[in-house]
Amino acid sequence: MDELSSLELLLTAVIALVALATVFGIILGYAAVSFKVEGNPLADQIDALLPQTQCGNCGYPGCKPYAQAIVDGEDINKCPPGGQATIDALASLLDVPAPELDAEHGAEAEVKSVAYIREDECIGCTKCIQACPVDAILGAAKLMHTVIVDECTGCDLCVEPCPVDCIDMLEVPQTLSDWHWQAPLPPAERFASPQPDANMIATDRGTDDTTDRAA
Amino acid sequence: MSKIWDIHGGIHPAENKQQSLGDPIQTVPLPPSLILPLSQHIGAPASPLVKVGDKVLKGQMIAAAKGFVSAPIHAPSSGVVSAIEEQTVPHASGMQAPCIVIATDGDDSWIEHSGTTHYCEKTAEELIAMIRDAGITGLGGAGFPSAVKLQPRQTINTLIINATECEPYITADDQLMRQRADDILIGINILAHILGDPERVLIGIEDNKPEAQQVLATALQNSIAVENAPAIEVVEFPTKYPSGGEKQLIQILTGEEVPSGQLPANLGIVCQNIGTTHAIYRAICHGEPLISRVTTVTGKACNKPGNFEVLIGTPVEHLLTEAEFNSVLCPNLVMGGPMMGFTLPNTSVPIIKSTNCLLATTAEENPAPPPAQACIRCGHCAEVCPASLLPQQLYWHAQSKNYERLEAHHLADCIECGACSYVCPSSIPLVQYYRAAKGEIRLIAEEKRQSDRARERFEHHQARVEREEKEKAAKREARKLAAEAAKAKREAEAKAAEENPESTTKNIPTDGDTKNTGELDIVQAALARVAANKASPADQRKRFERAIETTAARLAKAEQALEVLNKDKNAEQSTEKLAQIEQQRATIEQARLRHEEAKNKLAALNTDQPAAVEAAKGKPQTETPTDDEGLDRAATAIARAQKNAAEQASMSPQQKLLKQRDALQNRLNKAQARLAQAESEGSEQIDAFSNAVATLVEKLATAELKLSDAGSENTPHQNPASTTEENS
User: Fold this and answer.
1) In chain B, which residue's Cα lies nearest the Cα of A63?
2) What is the pLDDT of residues B149-162, one digit of tens each?
3) Do B455 and A63 touch (CB under 8 A)?
4) B350 in helix, strand or coil?
5) Does this complex have an ipTM over 0.90?
6) CB contact under 8 A, A133 and B300
7) pLDDT, tens digit, for every residue of B250-299?
8) Looking at the partner chain, which of A132, A204, A211 has a beta carbon nearest the beta carbon of B429?
9) Residue B367: enclosing H or E segment and its boundaries?
10) CATH number belonging to the domain at B18-361, selected among 3.40.50.11540, 3.90.1170.50, 3.30.70.1060, 3.40.190.290
């Protein structure tokens, strides 16, 4: 009798477990179908951090493919336009140590540059138009082309295909509208530099007692 | 006396205001040249209206506002535009920016101008337009276009006039109030009128200007007796830096805090500087644009500090000479006050609309700051921050460039007053860190915006390329299918020919039809042709005759080639040559055989049709004299081309021309339809379309000419000349 009841107990347990497993399996299966995430969210996050120059210096045909490659295990230090800032941002996103920029893929430009077409030399071959990844070049066959400066990412992909070599990469000069204050130098560097800190505001003086007395 | 509130924090730096208050406002002699930067205000730079060499009159607009948030610029004196070029501008960056330079002629002759004292008769829009055209910007220091500030979307219940002038050393507004209180009050009344007579009009003034306050109160009493204006109240409050900040002043006078990221107008408040109200009075009542302002020149490096009515564009050095400035004593010439001003790159930069002070302090008056030390977390900066921020936290995050945390700590609400730097026992240039971080954040936001745009454009580009690829692939596929169908048809025909060899000779000329029949029942078509062939024995005879001719020609040719080879053989003997000769002989033999065959077939046809069919059976397999199979296909293609050419040739030249003309006519009709559509839609491409029509008309005319030259009969058609008239 005892054996029978223990067998019953075992059976009950097995049946209960199977039932539970079935129920959860169905729930999980349903969830997997109905809450499926389209695309790779990590690739999109990485893509958002990349500079979108679409220059292909990393060896991939654009920023999105490189983002996808990073997800698949590619190094994060192959983006010269983004420079160290982008590498740092990627490193913090992926929680890996930030490496130096891979010099093999180019150096980080100090100043942003844009393409400029010497229009009187342009023969209207449309080769640059085909090369431009962001459609920033206007023109038609046998007619002069020109670059929409605001849309140019400075990827310089249009320079090489030009048969008459009439495209220059010009540095964008800094204007008053995009100037901003620089952070003070760290103390050690400030003392080392022969120039006094030009950005020092008048407030940054130690004592006002002398002026007080003068008043 | 209305209630006043207190603001958080604030400091009490040495005021140093007495030095410049000794004399009334002085005038400055006309400088030889005036430099007018195109961007003296917040917003888009003005765009020049004059050229180099133009003569300008005092008050003439020389640069127009570009966009909504912008302000025009006027010639401060008469003279000649000597240059429009990049010049160093009074800006913290010390950079160059486009400026209009006027060489003054000394006449100082005004352009025709007039104002009105009956401003109440004018609408707010008219007055705002006058203020805008007068180029008036906030004279307190920020330089925001006043007209923009006077067009809030919200209803305004409080107008606040900022007469605080809380920064040390500066006394320009103080002196202005003392001397021109009546004008200022009229200016305030104009502002109140523009804003729809708000319930309250408050003049906020610190208690360190008792004289100015007294004069204002007196003027107010007098003016109320004269005019029926809303009640203006002068509110005095304790001196504290920086009560003059817009948000701080609003808090002091109304107790309300302007929420982060919002404007005072959201609370129904508009705030204007007292100097601006005076400029508005000059603009409305006298029609004078903003071409001069009162600027304080002070500091121990000046022997005669004071307030000067100075023309906008006057070089700083010219003004400094009036104040007897000693450059040896002054290591650091500052534009603006000691708290928020910036060091000038040199003394040739001009005075601009927002220059309220030139501070020429000596080294002992304003010593170089001691080296910054580590933050000791004393918290003094948080105590004095008027925006209730946590400066030490901001400092840490600014140092580590943690922009997310900075934004979380509301860095954007920092008014850069410098109170935190002032109290810092470690002499850390805190504000400089905040300014740098703010600039960096702005830059990152701009880059983000640009990169988002680039991404979007790249994605569109990719999608377009992909679509084009697909279209191309689809076309290729279609071509391939067509080719396969044609091949299948040929094979079917060949098969049919095997069954009925007569059809094969017909094969070539009918090939052109395959394209049209497409994928229809090829076998059936082939069978139909076979039947047709059978029905016309005359045709068959013709073909056999042709075959005899060609085979004879081939035979002759092959024999010729053999002769050539034989000659070569005499010169040089080799196994290769021998093999070639052997081959050539075989070819000749074959050709001869075929020639015989054709002759036989012809004979058979003449006597008995079925016999000829039997004889012709072998022909397709042995058609080529050489063994090259490719030639077979090539011959087909050549034949097809010949057929097309023959078709063309069969048309008379006149017919051809007619056909051309019709095609052109069709195209012209289409182009005209497009033009009509473009015209009805008002499209920008009308020009392009009408050009296209004109070209087509021309082409059509040429075609017509040719047609008539060919001497053909004149079919009735549209006269090209009339078409042109229709379109013009």
Assistant:
1) B455
2) 899 888 999 999 99
3) yes
4) strand
5) no
6) no
7) 999 999 999 988 999 999 999 999 999 999 999 999 999 999 999 999 99
8) A204
9) none
10) 3.40.50.11540
